UniProtKB/TrEMBL annotation:
Residue ranges of the TM segments: none
Pfam families: AAA_31
Protein name listed in UniProt: Chromosome partitioning protein ParA
Domain AAA, residue spans: 2-151
Gene3D superfamilies attached to this UniProt entry: P-loop containing nucleotide triphosphate hydrolases
Organism, scientific name: Acidianus manzaensis
Length: 219
């Protein structure tokens, strides 16, 4: 199953979602995480550096905390600029065939990599923050989803209550991930926040949100 995390607005929590969802899913499923953002947010969140070499898509992976991570590399920029959507979709599906679940982190745009990730996806999930620009981005995403005939699951990030917008291709769950400095601390250290709190806190605060998200996504 391919799960794509998408929202063309920057900084809404795509990478945070992809990293922690993959970490939670890897406890019960053979899980991979594909960083398709040339900026490499997922890569650094797992303590790695963007690779300066070029690989074919899915050409390099490292197993960290039981998640098979495919880090960002120089080849992604070329694919973003000159890649063909059909070929990228095929490569994504080829990578996913080796796993129960492939989670994909995407860049903050609706370019070749993001669109290919949506087309390849079995499930699309979209974090939305309660700011006007993020909500506007969700509306644009809705239009794009309609044009490719796909549906997405929306949920709220950085808020204590869920937001719900009436869209035709994005249905909002009542999952709302609160603002927490654990996310920032964990990303600075290069570990998923859920992993970090498992080690640091007696009582985890954040895992239930991602467990819920995993459940809703796999339904
Ligand atoms: N719920 C949260 N509470 C506190 N900080 C958060 C939360 N979610 C994300 N952040 C922080 O906000 C910043 C942006 O989040 P993230 O990188 O996941 O967004 P993104 O959508 O992937 O951004 P980009 O589009 O630039 O790739 C990061 O520093 C992250 O640690
Ligand atoms: Mg990101």
């Amino acid at each position: 199953m391919i799960i794509t995390v998408i929202n063309q607005k920057g900084g809404v929590g795509k990478t945070t979602t992809a990293v922690n969802l993959a970490y939670v899913l890897s406890k019960t499923k053979n899980t991979a995480l594909l960083d398709l953002d040339p900026e490499g947010g997922t890569t650094t969140s797992f303590g790695m550096k963007r690779d300066k070499k070029e690989y074919p898509l899915g050409g390099k992976s490292v197993n960290i905390f039981n998640v098979e991570v495919f880090p960002a590399h120089l080849g992604l920029l070329k694919l973003e600029l000159n890649g063909e959507v059909d070929e990228v979709v095929k490569s994504i599906k080829d990578v996913s065939n080796n796993f129960d679940i492939l989670v994909i982190d995407t860049p903050p745009n609706l370019g070749t990599l993001a669109v290919s990730s949506m087309i390849a996806a079995d499930k699309i999930i979209s974090p939305v923050t309660p700011q006007p620009l993020a909500i506007e981005a969700a509306k644009n995403l809705d239009g794009r989803l309609q044009s490719i005939g796909k549906k997405a699951i929306g949920f709220t990030n950085l808020s204590n209550k869920s937001i719900s917008i009436d869209l035709s291709s994005v249905s909002f769950t009542n999952i709302h991930i609160p603002q927490s400095r654990l996310f920032v601390e964990a990303s600075r250290l290069g570990v998923p926040a859920i992993r970090y709190e498992e080690i640091r806190l007696k009582k985890p605060k954040l895992s239930r949100f991602f467990e819920e998200l995993a459940k809703v996504t796999l339904e």
